[in-house]
């Protein structure tokens, strides 16, 4: 079986939207599927990937199966992004400094005639 991770889960826009919906409130599988114009088997595949990645859990309540968000795994994404945020913030600060110094008025020396 292929190992799935949180990055794979958020790579797909449908899965990101499923996460957004379930983060607001637990939903049963039919309610999730009703929000998309794709087949129920396709939604089931997305739900399976999100479950394997640990971003959602499925809880049985009577005859219904509800999806609940487990967003702690997104911390891994945040930490990965943070290292690049520091890098790019430094680069943009350096660019800002360069542009501020580069836009100083140029003092012309009077030419000798």
Automatic annotation (TrEMBL):
<dbReference type="Pfam" id="PF01022">
    <property type="entry name" value="HTH_5"/>
</dbReference>
<dbReference type="InterPro" id="IPR036390">
    <property type="entry name" value="WH_DNA-bd_sf"/>
</dbReference>
<dbReference type="InterPro" id="IPR036388">
    <property type="entry name" value="WH-like_DNA-bd_sf"/>
</dbReference>
<feature type="domain" description="HTH arsR-type">
    <location>
        <begin position="1"/>
        <end position="89"/>
    </location>
</feature>
<protein>
    <submittedName>
        <fullName>Metalloregulator ArsR/SmtB family transcription factor</fullName>
    </submittedName>
</protein>
<dbReference type="InterPro" id="IPR011991">
    <property type="entry name" value="ArsR-like_HTH"/>
</dbReference>
<dbReference type="InterPro" id="IPR001845">
    <property type="entry name" value="HTH_ArsR_DNA-bd_dom"/>
</dbReference>
């Amino acid at each position: 079986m292929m190992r799935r991770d949180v990055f794979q889960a958020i790579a797909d826009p449908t899965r990101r939207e499923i996460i957004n919906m379930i983060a607001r409130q637990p939903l049963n599988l039919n309610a999730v599927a009703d929000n998309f114009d794709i087949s129920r088997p396709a939604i089931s595949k997305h739900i399976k990937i999100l479950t394997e990645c640990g971003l959602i859990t499925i809880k049985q309540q009577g005859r219904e199966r509800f999806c609940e968000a487990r967003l702690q795994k997104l911390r891994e994404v945040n930490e990965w992004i943070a290292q690049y945020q520091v890098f790019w913030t430094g680069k943009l600060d350096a660019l800002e400094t360069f542009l501020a110094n580069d836009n100083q008025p140029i003092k012309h020396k009077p030419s000798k005639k």
